[in-house]
Amino acid sequence: ETQKLLCKNGETLLGAVNFFVSSINTLVNKTMEDTLMTVKQYETARLEYDAYRTDLEELSMGPRDAGTLCRLDAAQSQFQSHKDKYEKLRADVAIKLKFLEENKIKVMHKQLLLFHNAISAYFAGNQQQLEQTLKQFNIKLKTPGAEKPSWLEEQ
């Protein structure tokens, strides 16, 4: 009976640990990765914007003939489109960094609290507190042995 209870509590703790790892993994590998990709796009857009701005300035300082005016209009159009892209990505980066900072703190706090409470309840042998911790964090576990009995129950 004691071993069955230990097995059940161990499976419950394992579910909490898996949820903890999954949430941290999502934060690190998805949320942070998305923010880094946006920053890289922003850097590329800034370089393109600077290049087109420089081209436009050079054409503006040169002689004004029919060919130059045509190239000047094209350069102005390209400059404006890259400027818009640059400004949009700058705003996106600011928003993503703000959300990342807020979410990083919230997720880490919530997950560390879950981890601490689950480990404490497990080692205290408090099954109700362990299950309550999982309910508090809305973690749905498959009922241990629902699909097939554990190796211990088969004995």
Give the arrangement of secondary structure elements.
Layout: H1 2-61, H2 66-124, H3 127-136, H4 151-154
Helix pairs in contact: 1-2, 1-3, 2-3
Keywords: Coiled coil
Protein name: ARFP2 protein
Domain AH: 1-135
Keywords summarizing the entry:
single chain; 155 residues; mainly alpha
Tally of structural domains: 1
Q: Let me know the largest β-sheet.
A: none
Please compute the radius of gyration using only Cα atoms: 28 Å
The structural class is mainly alpha
Please state roughly what percent of the residues sit in beta strands, choosing from under 5%, 5-15%, 15-25%, 25-35%, 35-45% or over 45%.
Answer: under 5%
Question: Which CATH architecture would you pick?
Answer: Up-down Bundle
Distance between the termini: 12 Å
CATH superfamily: Arfaptin homology (AH) domain/BAR domain
Number of strands: 0
